[in-house]
Every structure is written in C-alpha cells, then in structure tokens.
Amino acid sequence: MFTGRGKRLDIYIGETDHYHHQALYMAIVEMLRREGCGGATVTRGVAGFGASSLIHTASILRLSIDLPIVITVVDRPERIDRIIDPLRQMAPHALITAQSVEVVQSGAPLREGLPDVKVAEVMRREVAAVRPDSPVAAVVELLLDKDFTAVPVTDDQGKVVGMVSDSDLLTRGGMNVTISLQRATDADFARELRRSFENPDRKVAEVMTREVVTVGPDDVIGKAARLMVEKHLKRLPVVDSDGKLVGILGRLDILNTVAAVNLPEWHPEARPAGHQATVAEVMTREVPTVSESATVEEIFDLLVSSSQKRVVVVDDHRRVAGIVTDSDLISRVSRESWPGIIEILVARVPIGGASEAARKQAQKLRARFAREFMTRDVITVRDLMPVASALALSAEKRVKRMPVVNAAGELVGIVGRTEMMRALLA
Fold it and tell me: pTM here?
C-alpha cells in the first residue's frame, strides 16, 4: 500500500464552470480516475468568492447559483506532477495549489487479489457505441480516433447486442491491416488502406460478435478481471438489469485501480511477503533479441515469427538498449516504404517470402540497423518484483509488455499484462 511522502493537490473552481458541455468538476474527477489517481474528493462550499470578486452563498435565493467547488486529491508526487499540465488546460482560470504531505494510511481491502471496489466506481460512463446498421467504415474511423480497439453495439433501446473489435474487422470485415498499424501511418495513407477493403454496403451486424461478455455495475472488479483473463478480452460492456449499456470497463481501468491503491514501495533487496507471485514466475523466458547493429532482415525475421510482436535490442552484456515494434518500424521509415513494410508485417513472412514489390521496398532499408529503429527509453522490471508492483508500473507507464532483467541488469525474460493479471487472480 502507498504510504510515506505524497502530495496534496487542491483545485478551486466554480460550480457552474463547464468543460466540453460537462460540469468542470466532473470532467476533472473523471480525468483523475483515468490517470490512475487513488481518489478525489469534491467539496461544495457554503460561501466564498474568487477571481470575479463576487460573493457566493448557499442561501435559499442563491442555492443553485455559482457556489465554490474544491477538488482535493492526494497521491504520489510523480503522479500529481503528471496531472498538473492537463489540469491547467482543462481549468485555465482555476486556483491550483500543491503541498507535500505524509500519508500514514492508504488503500482499500482486497478481494479476488484486487482492490475490493465495484465496477461502477472505475468504469467509464461516456461510452462510444455503434448500431447494428452502422457502416463498418464508420467503426474503423471511430477506433482510429480512440485508444481502444473494440466498441459495443446497441439496439434502439440501448441494449447491448454485440461487440465489434479489431479482430472482427480482420476476420469478417474485410480489413487486412490492424488498427494499430493504421494508427502508425498518417491520415492520408490510412485512408488509402481503408479504400482497399471498405464495402459501402457492409454493416456492423454482419461482422460483430453476438455472444457478448458483460458485467454489472455492482460486480467487483475482481470478477471483471477474471472474465477478461478467461475470455481473452480487454474491454467489457457494463449493463444494468435490463441489459442496457451504462458504461465500459477496460483492462487499463482495472490496472489503474491497482496502481492507485496497491503499488508497494519495492526495493531490489526486498523479498515478496507471504505467497506473492514474482515476475520471474510468470514471465516468458524466450525473448527475440538482436544487437544494435542487427540488419533490417534480422529484425523482420524475428518480428514476424515471434508471438511477442517486438524485438529487444541488447548490448554485448545482454543489457537492454532498446526495443523495436511494428509501429517503430512504420514511424521511422519513409512513406514510400510503408506499403511493402505493411505487407510483410501483415503476411507475417520473412522478407524473402514477400512479393517482389515489397522485397524491393524493404531492400532499400538494407543499410539501416536496429539502433535507428529502436525506442531507447525502455521500461524494464526486475525478476524478483511482485506481480502487483509490476502490474501497477505497467499501468503507470502505459506499457503493455516489459523486458525483465536480473540484479546484474541482464535480460532474462519478458512479461505482459495478461499473464500478470492471471497470476494476481490465482
């Protein structure tokens, strides 16, 4: 649990302040939750005045007028520092103060290995949904603009009748390039890709998954997490007793909750207490690796043959120097190389097995090496770190898979969110 040095942030606004047609205080609270903050309290004042110098009171005549609102959040200093800039953008006229505090107790009871909180407390209430008669092209446009790859399908009464995901679009929707790869290109090129598979007559009802796994707002997040692990899902529609959509719960929402209330202060010399699972127990030991001088051919061969969908770049002492993913390749080559690169990645074949046009485009990159494509700032975890701490770090840093290193800093494995969540629920 989080104890020790922390920061307290107070945001002073007015009750009638709005942000994108929503009460500002609610927009701020939702942003704080998305960022994984442990909690926030909204206080409605009985009297006060602000920058306008107008005195506001809670008298009968002014009960529904602009009373002062104070939003208070206490969290780790680094998380508070991270949310200050978004707060300034959302509330440019607010008074925002920060002060150091000592947290002597924090956290929530655990249930099913996760904080004992209800789905309704962490779900997102503003849900993007589509209709069965919506065109498939509209779903692609929606997903490209969001940070998720699946969306619920609702009928005229708002009841959930299906889900349409990236995999549905690939298997039944005629799409031949994943949403993540399309996001790595520019808007014009992504539009060209879509023209190759768009069918103006194809509707969501033709491609959606009809057997939908849902949770209720009163279910605990442990149950939702177990469903995600068992069904290999990342998002669950939240429905009421009538089956109507009331929210959406993503895996990251659960991980943010773990990060908020259960991020132990772990030190390299520490050993897990009790029977806490460690990263070493759940990691994958077979990791595709290359040196910084590896050629493009070597990188492609490993990317298309590995289930990890990434290659770790190591030095002579097997210390992590960088990481290369599909998106890294796309973002760091010229636009004219994209068609060939995407063809190879989608077909998951070595360069030699691709079409002649794709081979020619890939061969233009022959003089380039792994050091030019890799992302250098790699988040790693220690092999002896408790799974709960590693999951929380994954949420904090927005990283799905992390290389695992030993005490000497040598690469010993790689670990992802699914296996860590499964271990936490065991």
Answer: 0.70
